[in-house]
Amino acid sequence: MNYEDFYGEYAAADDALKERISSQQKLLTRIRRNMANGDIKSASRDLPAIQSAASENHRAVSDMVGIIQSADMRAYLESGDFARQLIELCRENGVDIQGEGTTYEVFPYRLKIDAANADLQINGRKAIGLRPRALTAYLAKQRAKLLSAAFNPVQYAAELAAAYDLALLDAAKSKTVAADADIYLATLYKYLTPMRRFRREYNTQAYALDLARLYAAESNEAGDGRRFQFGPSRDNAKAIRIVDMAGNEHYLATIRFYRE
User: Does residue 235 surpass a pLDDT of 80?
Assistant: First the structure.
């Protein structure tokens, strides 16, 4: 199934119904005017036409209902057609998308295809629909909105530095750790969200988005006299993937706070 072909068929039926309703509305307006004037003869002459229009409307509605009910969205998702069309449209529109099977990432969103229930989840919430073109536009718009939202990099760096200091203290219990050692960003997330309810309110996607905005900040000041520096990893499994405003991906694995 190609959703755009299916939608085109529906749109044609929709237009036909709209045209018939418009024609019927004109007839009804004329009958109403004639009845208000007491011109029953003229009103009566339009009755066969409005009855015919009503029958045509019924057929048009039946056509539209048949088209809509013909869509097997579960099969559409299971076949992989939905995923292929979404990937194609994202790439055509410069929207970064990664993944395979039933799980995809459109930074900072995670998409999970639930074919059994004919649903798509975005960051754990049910998506508003399954049209790839509309979904691509929605994700691009929401991502741009998130990345352009007000963000105080110095304040966020200070909060990250507090978690960093706690991580250093814990690490120092078992071994000697330098005051400006590299700490995995995934480790800091645990200190930022020590309780499960905190992780629900501030999930890993929101964390990655904040890291992306901090990475893009002009200054690397932490507000306490220190500066921060991100570091990579040879193993991207330990890194957090981000995508900047230009659509370029980066893998951030560690961070350190240091004094010059």
Answer: no
Query: Which residues, in sequence order, are bridge partners of residue 255?
Result: 183, 230
CB 153 within 8 A of CB 213: yes
Asked if residues 27 and 53 have their Cβ atoms less than 8 Å apart, the reply is yes
Instruction: Evaluate whether 202 touches 160 at the Cβ level (below 8 Å).
Output: no
pTM across the whole model: 0.78
Q: Which two structure tokens, joined as six digits, stand for 132?
A: 């790839």
Where does the chain have alpha helices with state H? Answer: 3-37, 40-69, 73-78, 81-92, 132-148, 153-172, 185-192, 196-201, 204-215
CB of 50 closer than 8 Å to CB of 76: no
Four-residue CA torsion sign, 221, 253, 210, 173: negative
In this predicted model, what pLDDT tens digit does every residue of 83-100 receive, in sequence order? 999 999 999 998 889 999
